[in-house]
Design brief:
five-stranded parallel sheet; single chain; Helicase, Ruva Protein, domain 3; about 450 residues; about 15% strand; Rossmann fold; alpha/beta; 14 strands
Length: about 450
C-alpha cells in the first residue's frame, strides 16, 4: 500500500462475499479469516477493521484482544448479526469503536468510516508541530504520549518521564522542551548514571579555581548552562542521597553555590527527569528521597515499550533507514516485506534503541545491495517470537523410515495437550506458552481433531 497518501485503508473480515459501502477515499482489502486479518495487521498499517463476528469460531472478545495487541491504534468496527444491546456495551468497554447489530446498514457503515482520520503514513511532521520529529509513530500508545506533551509542553511544571531502557525517554524530553516557550534556549542533558558520583556535584553546579585538587580553572556547571532553558536528568534514580538533598534545594530555591565559592547563583530552568526504575519503590527502600520524588513527579509521562506499539515499527524502520543512509551518504535502502514482517514479529527487549542498532547493522553489512532481507537483521534471542528452529535431535529417523505427516501430527498433538494441561485449558495462555497466536492454536486444535 502507498504510505504517502491520505487514503483510508480498511480491512474487511467476513466469511460472506457481500459488498460493503465505503467512503470515496477508502480502499478495502477483503479477507475471510481471523488469521488473515491479524497477519495483514502485523504486516501493514490499516486505519480500520470491519469484521463480521464470530468468524471461524473466534468470538468478538478474542478478535478485539488479538487485533489490539497487534495494532493498538487501529479502529475496530464489529458487525454482530445476532447481538444484543448489552453486547454493544460490553464490547465498547473492551475497545470496539462501534458495533452494528442485525443486518449491516451500509449508510451507517459509510458514516462511521467517514469519521475516521487516515493515518499520516510516513509524512513529515506538520509545520505546526515540528517537535513530532522526536516521536516517530502513529500508534494509539504513542498518541497518548503526544497528547500529554501538547498539554504540558508550554507550561513551566516539572516532568518525570518513565519507561524501559531504550524506549525513547530522552526523545520525549526533547519533545517537551521543543513545545515550550524555552525552545530557543538550550536543552542540557545530564546522565546521572554515567558520571562518577564524586564528579557529579561539580558537573551540576560548577566550581571555582582551587576548589579541589585538580580544579585548575573556573568551570560553569550544567545548571548555569541551562539558564532560561531546560535541564534534563537522565536516570535520576541513580543519584546518591547526598546529592539528592542538594538537588532538592536547587529545585525549591532556584539558586545554588559553585563548589569552593560563597557566591549564590540564581537560575531559571525547567526540569525534566527520566528513569527506568520505579522511584516509588526506591522511596520505600530508603534509596530515594520522598520529598524529591514528589517534587519531580509533578506531571508523569510514561513512555511505552516497543512491544506495546508494534504498528509503529514500519515507520521507525523507514525513519532509521533514512537517517543511517543519510549519515553514510548512500541511497536509501528498501526493506522487503518478509524482513518487515520479521521485524514486526520481534519483542525487542531493548526497545527503539535496539531496533535502530539492528537497522544500522543491516545497512552497513548489506554492502551495495539496495534491498534488505530477513537474514540482514540480527534478532535478539529473547525477543524473536516463533522463529526458534526445533532441535534436529528431537526426533530420530529409524532405518526403516517413518510417516512424516503422522509423526509431525503426533508431536503437535502432544505439545498442544501439554500446554493446555499446564494452563488448565486456557487457550490464550497455552498459545502464549507455545509462542503461537490464539487463532493459530485454535486452528491447529480443529485440524488435529478432524484428523483424529
Amino acid at each position: 500500500m502507498d504510505h504517502a497518501d491520505r487514503t483510508l485503508w480498511v480491512l474487511w473480515v467476513s466469511e460472506e462475499r457481500a459488498e460493503i459501502a465505503v467512503p470515496a477515499q477508502a480502499k478495502v482489502l477483503r479477507v475471510s479469516s481471523a488469521e488473515e486479518c491479524l497477519s495483514h495487521l502485523q504486516a501493514s498499517c490499516f486505519d480500520a477493521v470491519v469484521a463480521r463476528v464470530p468468524i471461524q469460531g473466534l468470538g468478538p472478545e478474542e478478535l478485539l484482544e488479538e487485533a489490539k495487541r497487534v495494532d493498538p491504534s487501529v479502529h475496530l468496527l464489529l458487525h454482530i448479526p445476532d447481538g444484543q444491546v448489552r453486547d454493544v456495551v460490553r464490547l465498547t468497554k473492551l475497545g470496539a469503536d462501534y458495533c452494528f447489530l442485525g443486518s449491516l446498514d451500509m449508510e451507517e457503515l459509510a458514516d462511521q468510516l467517514d469519521q475516521i482520520e487516515p493515518r499520516r503514513r510516513g509524512e513529515q511532521p506538520p509545520e505546526s508541530e515540528p517537535w513530532r520529529q522526536f516521536l516517530v509513530g502513529q500508534s494509539r500508545a504513542l498518541e497518548m504520549v503526544c497528547d500529554r506533551v501538547r498539554l504540558v509542553g508550554p507550561r513551566r511544571c516539572t516532568v518525570l518521564v518513565t519507561g524501559e531502557t531504550g524506549a525513547g525517554k530522552e526523545m520525549v524530553a526533547r519533545a517537551v522542551h521543543a513545545t515550550s516557550t524555552r525552545s530557543a534556549q538550550p536543552l542540557v542533558a545530564v546522565n546521572c548514571g554515567a558520571i562518577p558520583e564524586h564528579l557529579l556535584e561539580a558537573e551540576l553546579f560548577g566550581h571555582v579555581r582551587g576548589a579541589f585538587t585538580g580544579a585548575m580553572h573556573h568551570r560553569v556547571g550544567r545548571f548555569e548552562q541551562a539558564h532560561r532553558g531546560t535541564i534534563f536528568f537522565d536516570e535520576i534514580g541513580d543519584m546518591s542521597l547526598d546529592l539528592q538533598a542538594k538537588l532538592l534545594r536547587v529545585l525549591q530555591e532556584r539558586e545554588f553555590q559553585r563548589l569552593g565559592s560563597s557566591e549564590t547563583v540564581k537560575v531559571d530552568v525547567r526540569v525534566v527527569a527520566a528513569t527506568h526504575v520505579e522511584l516509588a519503590e526506591r522511596v520505600e527502600q530508603g534509596r530515594f528521597r520522598e520529598d524529591l520524588f514528589y517534587r519531580l513527579n509533578v506531571v508523569p509521562i510514561r513512555t511505552p515499550p516497543l512491544r506495546e506499539r508494534r504498528s509503529d515499527i514500519p515507520l521507525l524502520v523507514e525513519h532509521f533507514l533514512a537517517k543511517v543512509c543519510r549519515f553514510e551518504e548512500i541511497p536509501v535502502k528498501q526493506v522487503t516485506r518478509e524482513a518487515m514482517e520479521r521485524l514486526c514479529d520481534c519483542d525487542w527487549p531493548g526497545n527503539v534503541r535496539q531496533l535502530e542498532n539492528a537497522v544500522e547493522m543491516a545497512v552497513v553489512l548489506s554492502g551495495t545491495r539496495q534491498r534488505l532481507y530477513p537474514a540482514d537483521f540480527p534478532l535478539p534471542a529473547s525477543g524473536a517470537r516463533r522463529l526458534a528452529p526445533a532441535s534436529s535431535a528431537a526426533v530420530a529417523v529409524p532405518d526403516g523410515g517413518l510417516d512424516f505427516e503422522e509423526t509431525v501430527s503426533r508431536i503437535e498433538r502432544s505439545l498442544l495437550r501439554q500446554a493446555l494441561e499446564k494452563t488448565s485449558g486456557n487457550k490464550k495462555q497455552a498459545a502464549d506458552m507455545l509462542r503461537l497466536k490464539r487463532t493459530t492454536l485454535s486452528a491447529k486444535l480443529r485440524a488435529l481433531g478432524a484428523s483424529a
